[in-house]
Amino acid sequence: MRHAQGNPEELKQKFWRALADSPYLFLELSGQSDTAVPMSPQLDPDADSAIWFFTHTRSKFAALGPVTATFQDKGHDMFARFDGTLVKETNQKRFDRFWNSFVEAWYDEGRTDPDLLFVRMDLGNAEIWNGDIGLLNTAKMALGMTVQGEAEERHVKETSL
Fold it and tell me: Within a domain: residue 36?
């Protein structure tokens, strides 16, 4: 883990809370920005090194392998970019735990749809920004004063999730 400023553990905890509260992130095959699409991550609070997705066997994600995700929370206070590796998830208990009517709406034949693919993203490194710069820094910006130092204190350049 490398970081310039910021408290990585604090930002990681804020990141996980923000991701749990926001239903979408952008996922793309690494180095292939044309594959980026919004996805709904499935989270397990006891597994902080992986997230899961339901997708289709005809999607580009069926190729599996290295991916990059970008995230912005609902309030625009938390931003993250993180890497990982997509692998096929075969754990039926996990599948059953995450399956719900919102997922089912995407698959004509429900949980038995032959086009259904359940994948796990094993998480790698992340860059996390806390965008909440506070009232004082907002006033400084309005006055044309620099806030770069304060903003860097809310940024972790690289950390493991």
Answer: yes
